[in-house]
Each structure stands twice: as structure tokens, then as C-alpha cells.
Design brief:
homodimer, alpha/beta, UDP-galactose 4-epimerase, domain 1, 2 domains, seven-stranded parallel sheet, two-stranded parallel sheet, 8 helices, globular
Chain lengths: ~300, ~300
């Protein structure tokens, strides 16, 4: 299949692209002129988008992709006043332009990426931050396109993710550095539940979704959302213990030295539906051991 | 009170501003550099927005408005590919910038304007067109602001409106021109239900809402939406008869000569809640007679 992917410079998309290329698919990545394509699988074809809608449509008509996987987004845990325009451009306008080009070039399916943070306090919709609000807003826009065109639009909602090649300043990288540098770290009280999934499981959610969309030709998901959620949800404090066990190290954390942040998610959304047939295959202890081996090796 | 208003060059805002100025309020209108301020009530103060978020916040801090009435929007019944950016900038980004400035300057209330077209086929959400989708998207962005700040945000959803000074190419203006020029017009079969309200009733919905927001200080609407809906909903064909009666003329319409448009709204949304205490005061026959007198005079 020919698949157009966005967000190819990000952690999840890089792994997904590698898998799809290994499976023999033709991958077209939409990037920006300043994008760093280092680490994106060999064989990926690139299109540099400069914001021109007609040029984007011409490109879609040329490639004639079977489907689109939209992983690009601007993530900001908290925004500043000057971030508004770029948050909307990245998380709403770009996706709208993709849907316009997709529907006008008769693309059959479109996988969008959402976030558990659209569901603060487990509500049907309550955004943790402006980032999550822009994700919801894009789904609203998408509804216009899938109601008025023959395109199968679905959203996969992700929470925390981890794995080899993840350079984001997230908890496992933080802890690995602590141990390496023999540091002590002040953290929140640590009672917030963490729902984190290993990259291979995330990638499988997308590849499974693709096969449903490809094979269930007469089935319309009508904008349905699916989630990737761990079967090992646990408080951050307990996750630290798993990490210690996997790495055979001790974390010097002063729990409670810092406050929880504003709108800290204490219990992540648990009302999502997994992609049909998806099951967590990699468990935390093994994944962290694997991660450590690959990172050190 | 000091009130900031957007969309002041539009039909509804012009009438509303005149009423609010007559009531003694201080009106600050946000316009663009190319806006034509002709016909906006004397005494209105203007601020030219050039897209700078910090300048907008400085302006809010200077004015210290009690509330904001957001009527600006880009309306397009059908969009073209090149319209996407301007639809999003006008209907999502501008409102988001207003909410950012409002919450940062401790504005107490914000009245947003939505459309019945967010409810195609009477659904909780199904946009008739991309315009309506951007309206919904903005409400979802707004949720972030009213969930995380002490601001009372409400939406008033409008359907058709008419009255003196309305220069839009809508049905009554069309029919008046037909009669004046003794023309014959081909129209759709005419069975679509029309829900159209007279401008004075629309203005009253806003002034009533303002008084609720001002007086019910401890009450939070939490993003509630209210509607302005006519008690005289009727098929377009029947509306033509009322128009003929009011104007003592004959309309030469060939019903059925044109098809309905894509996603023609046959039955407008009827699940809205009117603003508390609001009742239609001007009835169609009288309003059209008044309109004709004032237009000819």
C-alpha cells in the first residue's frame, strides 16, 4: 500500500515507518523545510509542505495514497500566550488541510492521533491543557469531512509511550540519567497513576488498525476513537520500584518534595476502547530490561 | 458596563451596539485595519487588531471590560480549498486569542455566537458545513479556558435573522428585489422549514443574557448554549405567502425549478434552550410590514 504519514520526525512515527517499510509498504512522509529527517527509515519518500493547499492536493493526486496516518502535532504541556497561533496551525489547520486533500483525492482511510488528555477526570471531554483542546477541535473539524465524503476516519488516542530511540525528557530517561550521574531527585508525592505503553505495542495498534481499514471495506467507523492503554497501570511510586527491579539500581527520589502540577492527571482516562484484536504484548519489567540493554549496547 | 464586542461591522452587532450604547454602556469594538466602520453607532471606541497577542492583552488590561460579546465570524455556506486558513483564523484562532486575553485580564463573562448549523439532522453535533465545524471547534477550545479560569462562558446559537439594515443576499432582500424589478425566480421545491428571527428579538437575547451574567454572579453556565428560535417556523413556500400578504404583492416564483443544495437543512435544529426569560416579541407579518415601510421610507 501507499501511505502518507505526518509527524515522521517524532518518536512514534519513526518506529511505525520502519515497521511499515519492513512490511513492504510505500511510505510518503510530509515534512517541513526545517525538519531533521535523521533516523527516519531508508526508503521513505519526502514531501516538503510549505502551506500551499493546492500544491498539497496536487501531491495527493500524484501519490494516490491508500490511506493517511496523521501523527504530527505540537505538544505543549502548558502554553504561553504567544504559542496560540502555532498550536492551532499545527494541531488544527494542518490536519484540516490534510483532510481537504484526502477527500478531494478520494483517499479511503485516515488514522488520526489523539490523547488521553482530552478526558481530564475521565470525562467524555474535558481538556487537560490547550494542546488537548486543539486535538478535540480537530476531531470536530474532521466530522465535517467524514460526514460529507466517503472516507473512513478513526482516531487512536495515546497516553504515555516509551522505547528505544525516545529522546524526550520523560520519566524513564530522567531516571536513567539519575542513576548514571548518581543524582537525587525531588518529585511529586507520586500517587498519580501512570499508563505507559511500549513502542512495539503502540506500533501494533496502528498496523492492526490499518488492516481493519483495508479489509473491512464496507465498514464505516464514523469517527470512532480507540485507545492504547496499559494493563499494568500503577502509581508513579510503584513504577519507580519496577524500574529499580529491572535495572537492578536504586533511585534516590525524594517523594513529595515537589507539588503536583496544575491539573495533574491522577487517574488517566479508562473508558477507551482498544483497537479490535489489540492486546498488550510487552510488559513493563521486560521492556525496561530490553530498553536498558539496547541503550547501553 | 464596559463591553468589548467583535464583529461590529456585521448586521447583528451593529444593532446590538446601538442598543447597548442607548442603555449607557461603554462599547469597545475590535476591528481589523481594513474594516469599514460606517453604520456603527456613534460613541463606539475602536481597537485595530493586527494579530499580536501581547498587544491584545495590553488592550484588555487597559479597558478592563466587564465582559466580551464575540460576534465576529467568517461565514461561508460552502468553502473552497483556499478558504481553510481564513476560516480557521477567523472562527477559531481569533476567539482563542480573545479568551486568552480575557482570562489573563480577569474578564468575568464571555458571550460567544454559534449556529443552528452545528446540528444537521437535529444531532447533538453534526456540522452542515466547514463553517459550522469551526464554530464547534471553537466551543471545544473555549472549554479549556472556562474549566481552568473563573470566566462565565456561554454561547448563543442563531439561525436566520432579518431586519432593517441587513444588506446580505438573503431571502427577504431577494424577494423585495424581485418585486421591485418585476422578475420571475426559480427556487427549490420550498419545503424546507425556515426559522428566522427579527433583529430586535435577537438583540434582546443578548441583552437578557448580559443581565443574567451580570446579576447571577455566583452562577456558572459552564459553557451552556442557548438558542434564538422563532415560534413561527414554516416551510419556505408558506413564508413566501406571508411575505406576499405583508407586502401586498405577488411573488413570481417557479418552485422546484432548482434542486435543494447539498446538505440543505430541511428541518432546523429544535432542541435548543432559549435564553432564560426570552420570548419572541415581533411576529413575521408585522416585522415584514415594518421592514418594508422603513426600507421604502
Amino acid at each position: 500500500m501507499k501511505i502518507i504519514i505526518t509527524g515522521s520526525t517524532g518518536f512514534v512515527a519513526k518506529s511505525l515507518i520502519q515497521t511499515l517499510i519492513n512490511e513492504g509498504h510505500e511510505i510518503h512522509a510530509i515534512i517541513r523545510s526545517h525538519s531533521n529527517t535523521e533516523g527516519i527509515a531508508d526508503g521513505t519518500k519526502f514531501y516538503v509542505d510549505n502551506g500551499d493547499n493546492q500544491a498539497l492536493l496536487d501531491y495527493f493526486n500524484l501519490v494516490k495514497p491508500n490511506g493517511v496516518i496523521h501523527l504530527a502535532s505540537l505538544f505543549l504541556a502548558q502554553h504561553n500566550t504567544e504559542d496560540i497561533q502555532s498550536l492551532i496551525t499545527s494541531n488544527i489547520t494542518f490536519g484540516t488541510r490534510l483532510l481537504e486533500a484526502s477527500t478531494k483525492s478520494y483517499v479511503k482511510w485516515f488514522i488520526n492521533t489523539g490523547t488521553f488528555w482530552q478526558h481530564y477526570e475521565n470525562e467524555a471531554y474535558n481538556p487537560v491543557n490547550l494542546y488537548a483542546a486543539t486535538k478535540q477541535a480537530f476531531q470536530d473539524i474532521a466530522k465535517f469531512y467524514y460526514e460529507t465524503n466517503d472516507i473512513n476516519f478513526v482516531t487512536i488516542k495515546l497516553n504515555d509511550t516509551f522505547g528505544e530511540g525516545d529522546t524526550r525528557k520523560k520519566v524513564f530517561n530522567l531516571w536513567q540519567n539519575m542513576i548514571k550521574n548518581n543524582e537525587t531527585l525531588g518529585m511529586s508525592p507520586g500517587d498519580q497513576i501512570i499508563d505507559i505503553s511500549y513502542i512495539d505495542d503502540i506500533v501494533e495498534a496502528y498496523t492492526l488498525m490499518i488492516s481493519h481499514l483495508k479489509n473491512d471495506k464496507n465498514f464505516s467507523y464514523k469517527g470512532d476513537a480507540f485507545s492504547v492503554s496499559s494493563s499494568e497501570r500503577m502509581p508513579l511510586k510503584d513504577l519507580a520500584k519496577v524500574f529499580e527491579e529491572a535495572t537492578k539500581s536504586t533511585l534516590n527520589i525524594n517523594w513529595g518534595e515537589r507539588p503536583y502540577r496544575d491539573r495533574e492527571v491522577m487517574i488517566p482516562w479508562d473508558k477507551g476502547h482498544p483497537v479490535l484484536g489489540w492486546k498488550q504484548k510487552t510488559f513493563l519489567l521486560n521492556a525496561i530490561i530490553k530498553l536498558k540493554e539496547n541503550t547501553n549496547g
